[in-house]
Each structure stands twice: as C-alpha cells, then as structure tokens.
Specification:
This protein has 64 residues and is mainly α. The chain has 2 domains: 32 residues; 31 residues. It is built from 2 helices and no strands. The longest helix is centred in the C-terminal third of the chain and has 26 residues. The protein is elongated and about 50 Å long.
C-alpha cells in the first residue's frame, strides 16, 4: 500500500505542474515571451525539482 502511494505522489505533482503550465499559456502576456525564455524557465524548473527531490530522498534515508 505504501508503494502505491509513493508512485501516486510524483504523478499528482506532474499533473499539478501541467495544470499550472496550461493556465499560464492561456494568458495574453504569454504571447510576448520568447520561446527561448520559456524553454529556459522550464529547464530551470525541472532541474530545481530534480535537485529538491534528490535532497529530500537523501534526507529521508535511514542513517547507518
């Protein structure tokens, strides 16, 4: 049961991120952004997310 919950959390976070991204793309200001800026922001966000997830995983490991 715990393993099912662990798999559901990243999926839920992914969908929340997609909903936020789609919400931003509907705004008229989004059209003024350059594509390279959008790609850079998405890449930075992904790297930040992976780093944060690695830190949390590292802190949750049992100490030897």
């Amino acid at each position: 049961m715990a393993s099912q919950r662990r798999g559901a959390v990243p999926v839920a976070v992914f969908f929340v991120g997609l909903i936020g991204l789609f919400g931003i793309t509907r705004e008229p200001r989004f059209a003024t952004f350059r594509a390279v800026d959008v790609v850079q922001l998405l890449g930075s966000g992904m790297c930040f997310g992976v780093g944060l997830m690695a830190l949390v995983t590292r802190l949750r490991e049992p100490r030897a």
